[in-house]
């Protein structure tokens, strides 16, 4: 048998010599810190005062975390906030213990303390990280950032650009984030909508480009509640991925594209605006168009456009073999203003609408308000589940499943693209299917964070 000693001696040679110190160094080096604290940034246009945010590493949004597919993401989260917090890695199909959901996968990290996150980045794609404790307040204050996992072979684009869209609710006189995080009107209606919309924390995001340049735009909706309906101008391209997962063949960019909170898309776009013009990513709000990001064009990248792109390589996601005898689940959403919810179960006992309202609770899943002792469903590892999601409310919702991506079935039963967040409009019913291939306790909630805080939060357990 080889002892460690004989192994080192026996293998000898330059390769082993070179490998050894690196291993030792890696074992010693502590993970880089990700420090959450309060600081001031120039969020609003320059004629406004600085805004005090809660954020990561002195930035808003937080710093880009970027790794190669297959690598690990290791960060020592240091909490210098006045509140307990935790970090969730939205869309990563990683280890449950590292999922960062306070009260479900870990205790919230108290002020002054730290937590070591270390998780595998198995899927290449566009993800994001954000606070998962008192999220309706903490994400609104700025606790989020981009998380990019690179494909081992870089796709053929000239530039790779992440655009994090957010809206903030600020007092225009003081320039400060308003502290009405529990406003009953927001909780019971469309959530906390802002009055200042940013791209990467800027009011007027601009990126100079060249004609015929191909950009990869990774667009993340980091807003608490706002839907972004997007269109492009002076750009032409393809939709390459939803929620971090590549589509099987690039889809021509539709006229408009709506992203619910938490959702992402990857676009490949070619700059077709003339030199001296501006290409735009815009948003449509109550049938008016607004610039969300501007790309002034000068010079040319090449004489002609590139040919249509090849699809991004697929991630190693499970197939849905066994769909025919899938476990059937149902999630019925009720409540909210103008809803018909008369009573529901909260903290183990039945309450009428007034009692719920007094406690800031407005929504229910299957008649249950907020987190419960027992999960919505218990699935065994590898089981395929098919869930009917009924939106019996007059508001849209963005249902996010942690730990596993799902597919939405079309009317005819064909599975659609992989997603981690389902945007459902008032009155809609969807069927989603997923393979329960990741053991643990997984949060399943509305990503309109005021809704999650006022009832729309549950969990699914996958047992090994
Ligand atoms: Cu993006 Cu449960 O979170
Ligand atoms: Cu909702």
Automatic annotation (TrEMBL):
- Which InterPro entries does the protein's record reference? Cu-oxidase-like_N, Cu-oxidase_2nd, Cu-oxidase_C, Cu-oxidase_fam, Cu_oxidase_CS, Cu_oxidase_Cu_BS, Cupredoxin, TAT_signal
Keyword annotations for this protein?
A: Metal-binding, Oxidoreductase, Signal
Q: Where is the Plastocyanin-like domain?
A: 44-152, 160-270, 357-462
Gene3D superfamilies from the entry?
Cupredoxins - blue copper proteins
The keyword Transport is assigned to this record: no
One example of the protein's molecular function in GO is:
oxidoreductase activity
Record's protein name: Multicopper oxidase family protein
